[in-house]
């Protein structure tokens, strides 16, 4: 049996090798679908599928299994992307599609193929394809939409649509309506890339991106939780991962903006849109929209901001604490906490969250929010 | 934007998908399709499909590469067959459409697109340049390569795109964009140099600095000189800089100086690599200069500010390292020599620097170092001069000679140095320049002549003029009597312009005149061998016209000029040279002017010497030329009698009065205008209202001894004019000249041409001539000099005869005045009486001196003071007038003896009694007081017998 299958493996590869490149890749893809979406999936089939991907689809290895130096020239790569686009776009079976998609772009080769994936998704935005975007959404969710790969994908797309091209003239603004799930996951990933003080260099979102995000969120209050609303169809046996909403991340942006000299009006607009979105989060028990730990993001940056001011010794403590920017940040923070708490959308260690909030410099609203929380808690007790 | 809409089809989403398919198929050569359609499709994708941009640019690579290939092929065909194969038109269209869209992208969003497109275009240019480097007739010459590629649409477009990128980045990210450029350059050097050169000319500052430092880094890695010379990188650097030097000399100079200065600054932070680079900087720069004379001259311009003694002192410590690098000290020296000789800028500065090093006094460091620098500088200077001379002798002057010829000012400064070596070097250089172009030498010589203050400098001046390197066979040397004559001509004519033209040049020629005199004296002394050819005299003779006319205008230097002219002895009796008449006239006129200037002068010794010179010059001139004599006498007399100079000789200057008059006519006209009603109101000359009564004129009279001296000098000058060529034993005056003088006196004093004859008419006739007689009389009163002149003429008989009319006029007026005097005034001895008596005695004196009145009439002067007025009248009328009337005062009365002296023998010429009786009777009547006189005059009469 094993010998036979081994022989068929070789003959399969041989026959594929006789075909010219783009066609061979297409045939290989068909074969891969057969191999991994069949009734019985064995590790062996899986290995063969991976081999086929590496040799015939991505041209990463040659027939002897050695690595090629530069597998894809930009033109060949574009050819492959076009092929993948056609292939996935026309694959109506969502389960099979997601299965193949995940297996192609996950695992050990994920980083190598990330470039192709980014471009594929980019094309799927330019030539709108809800199917591909939903698969991409599933991919992000399964890998974790704040994972490194997701962030890189998001960054690549932002390069394409917000850096090189003007979003107002491209189809990126259609994406929220075409695939809200993808948009939500994309936003979550994007939030990780900016206002991230754990990175070596903290960068801020470009203005065009801010404007688009604000428009999206304010026009569609449900967008942020869209990924949680509809689960993608996954291969059998796979464990569905819960999507993280972009709410906590975007709040981090709006709260930290004033103390990072990002005083554009658009942050205020986004903040308002977020608060509106939060209010509209449907009540579920247990709540799942926002993880309490994610909400603590702004605390450390605020504290270090106050410290910096104090180290400069130009201002008295009194002045520092009453500084307009600091108070605006704290106001926004308190508003968000208040709203989130009031719609009961937060889960996890809420006590811990409030405990940490107490470390912040004094703010009237924040103190009210904290005291209300304490009061309610006492009542519940 | 309009064109863009034609390129990029605005397609619906579905079409974008088709477009992608079409492009992929076409670009991967799956299907053959129209390249123009494919490009349009690519452009559409580039515009609307972000993910495709890398692939599209990749595709454009093929297009540009292909276009370049077609272009090269066309050129190759042209070379082979001679006919030009046109580049496919589609290439042009495609390239231009791509150009348009890329430009739009860059200008629309430069931050994102410019770095990407810039890198892409540079890499592509590099590839294309390398790929076709062996094709067509590519030479190593950067300019040719540049021209060839700039003629190609594809590469030109790429360069343009790149420039656009860089110019949009230049403010945000200069460093990165330039280093990308140089990285590509290093990868594809030297084929890529033309791009760097072109980009460099768009961003000169940045590119030049970077290219230089890049070259230095490479240079450091070479261990030896030979290796360094052959480095392709160095050639690239030179090529690029050489290309940029055309329009960015300033930037290049600054950049080179910047690294030079950087290499001199040692700091503790320097890494080993930096130290190595700093050591190598100067050899590196020298090498660059060696390879490109453009760079050399670019930097030479500022050598003065860059290389100071202090810097040399610092460089000294590097020399050992450099020598090691060049192998031997000789190799370094040779390179230096080559470079110095090649300098076409600031050559004089280099020479000066060497001289400064030789005369090094202060430097930080020990004596040994100072000694070394001085010795080496001497060596180099000597060698440089030798090489220059060699090149000049071979009629192939090196760069530095030409450079120096542009910088004569600097040489002039060197002339004035007190250091012997400095001005001798300058002299050497001038001779070298003079060999090529005598006008440069003439200019320098002019300067030297005007500014030399010591004998050494004058010697240098002569050396320049007489050097064997100076061509003496061609004009202007051969025509105008030597270069010196040209030098003089230029100085003098400029000076003439100063006086006669409006544009003033503040020339101080005093040194020049002194120098000229010194030179002339050297020549006269005969002790200077190089002056034996009399170049000074010849030159002066050639410029006499100017010189003599300057003599009168150069008031400040007249004594020196007089010295020169006197020393020259014009006209020299022994020599063949005959000065032109203009010179004679000029000289005469200006000498006369000089005479009067001397009279005005206060200085005593100069003044006296001046009079001597005047006499010498005038004597030479007047014996040489009659015209000069006439002119000199006329000028002397006229000035002394009538011009303002006459005050010098005691005259009452009447003319001054007129200046004070306001003009009666003018005043009357004015009144007519202001008071129109009173028709007949006139102004009479009783004074001007407001200025008071007319003042009697006061004369500033000179002290009598001054006047006397002036008169003495004037008579001397006149004597000089009238002198004989060779002095006679008995008379030194020429008869002709005295006659001339006498006639001139008549001409000047007598108011008209009538009645100027020698004969004296009847006394009654004086009623007719009384008016002019009175005029003449007034002349004599106002101008006492006339008496002196008359006496002078009287001495040299018989010239006084021609003044007969003057004497007659004086006598007539005297008689008339004595008649009207009346007896009463005698007792009072009034002023009037005294004056009249003095004048009468003077007239009789002159007549006696001129032997017009023979004895005893000649003694009347002693008798007159004892006589009454009517007796005086009788004597004057009966004795003097009647005698003169009957004995016409003409030269015929005088005989010429064997010594050529004219005289009238008083014994033979004794007047008949009819002329003496009146006198005798009157004397007898007054025998009380005139007894002794009577005996003398009438009793003891000398005869030939006793």
Automatic annotation (TrEMBL), chain A:
- Tell me the Pfam families matching this sequence: INTS15
The protein here is known as Uncharacterized protein
From TrEMBL, chain B:
Q: Which residue intervals define the domain Integrator complex subunit 5 C-terminal in the entry?
A: 233-930
Any stretches that span the bilayer, and where are they? none
Give the Pfam families listed for this entry.
INTS5_C, INTS5_N
Q: List the GO terms this entry assigns under cellular component, sorted alphabetically.
A: integrator complex
Classification via InterPro entries: INTS5, INTS5_C, INTS5_N
Protein name, per record: Integrator complex subunit 5
One of the GO BP terms on file: snRNA 3'-end processing
Per UniProt, residues of the Integrator complex subunit 5 N-terminal domain are 14-221
Organism equals Phaedon cochleariae (Mustard beetle)
